[in-house]
Amino acid sequence: IMQSYDFLELYKRYGCNLQFGGDDQWSNMLGGTELIRKKLGKDASAMTITLLLNSEGKKMGKTQSGAVWLDPDKTSPYEFFQYWRNVDDQDVIKCMKLLTFIPLEEIEEMERTLSGEQLNPAKERLAYELTQMVHGKEEADKALAAARAVFSSASGTENMPASEIPAAEVEGEVGLLTLLVKAGIAPSNGEARRLVQQGGISIDGEKVTDPTMKLTVRDGMVIRKGKKVFRKVVLL
Fold first, then answer.
1. Helices 92-99 and 104-112 meet at what angle, rounded to 10?
2. Which residues contact 82 (CB under 8 A, 6 or more apart)?
3. Are both 78 and 136 inside the same structural domain?
4. What is the pLDDT of residues 56-87, one digit of tens each?
5. Are 3 and 34 in contact (CB under 8 A)?
6. Is residue 147 domain-shared with residue 167, that is, in the same domain?
7. Does residue 74 contact residue 54 with C-beta atoms inside 8 Å?
8. Could you tell me which residue ranges the RNA-binding S4 domain spans (predicted)?
9. What is the pLDDT, as a whole number, of residue 154?
10. Could you say which residues of the chain have pLDDT below 50?
11. What rounded mean pLDDT belongs to the chain?
C-alpha cells in the first residue's frame, strides 16, 4: 500500500508515470498504477527486469555483511572486485553475459573450456571488467594487482585498501577487538568477538582465534576478514 501511494505522490508532484524495478515488485507496482487510475483518472505504467539470482536462487549483491554498493565509500573498488572474483563457479558465464560488454563469441568460447584451472582466469576477467566499468581502469588495475599480491603471498600491498589509525591510539599492546573496530573490520566489539570466535580473522596470514589476545600494532600489517575483505593498517 505504501509503495502504491509513493507512486501516486511521484506522479502528482513530478509527473512520473513509469516505475521500474525487479520482477519481484510486479504486483506492488501494478497496485500503484491502479491507484493512480482510480484517484486521478490517469494512465501509468510499470516495467520490470529479471532479478539477478545466484546458483542457489538468492539475490546477487547481498552478502553477510550487507549489500555490494556501487558507491566506493560504501564498497571499496577492491571489495567490489573481490565480490565478483568470488562468485560461484556456476554463475561466472551468466554474469559475463548479463553484466559485461565482452563479445558473446568470446564468452561462448570460454564457456566451452570453462573447468578446473580455467575458472580462476575467467572469474578474474569478470571482476576486472565490472570494476573497470563502475570505478574506472585505474581502480580496476589497482584492485587486480592487490588481489594477485594477496593470493600469491607477494609482499606488495600498496594497492590494498588501507585503514588509517592514529599511532597514539594504538601505542603499546592493544586488544585484538579494539584493533578490529579501529581498522573498520567490525562495527563493534561484539561483532569483532563473533568474527574471531568463528575463525574469520587473520593477521599477516595467521588466523587468530583468541578474542582476549593483545598485540603490537605495526604500520603495514594486513588484517583479513573471511575470504574477501583485506585491510592494510596505516599508522598516522
1. 180
2. 127, 143, 147, 228, 229, 230
3. yes
4. 787 877 654 557 889 998 888 988 998 898 88
5. no
6. no
7. no
8. 174-235
9. 45
10. 64, 153-155
11. 87
- Tell me how far CA of residue 87 lies from CA of 30, 125, 138, 141, in angstroms: 33, 12, 23, 19
- Residues 167 and 210 grouped into a single domain: yes
Listed in sequence order, the DSSP H helices in 26-91 are: 26-40, 77-85
Instruction: Provide the domain limits for residue 86.
Output: 62-151
Residue with cell 507496482: 29
Task: Verify that 97 and 166 share a domain, yes or no.
Answer: no
CB atoms within 10 A of CB 94: 18
The packing angle between helices 77-85 and 137-151, to 10°, is: 60
Q: Which three cell numbers stand for residue 191?
A: 561483532
List, in sequence order, every beta strand (DSSP E) within 50-149.
62-63, 66-67
The grid coordinates listed for 180 are 578490529
Residue 104 C-alpha cell reads as 558473446
* Helix locations, 62-116, DSSP H: 77-85, 92-99, 104-112
Instruction: Give CA–CA dist 81/140, Å, rounded.
Output: 8
The amino acid that residue 174 corresponds to is V
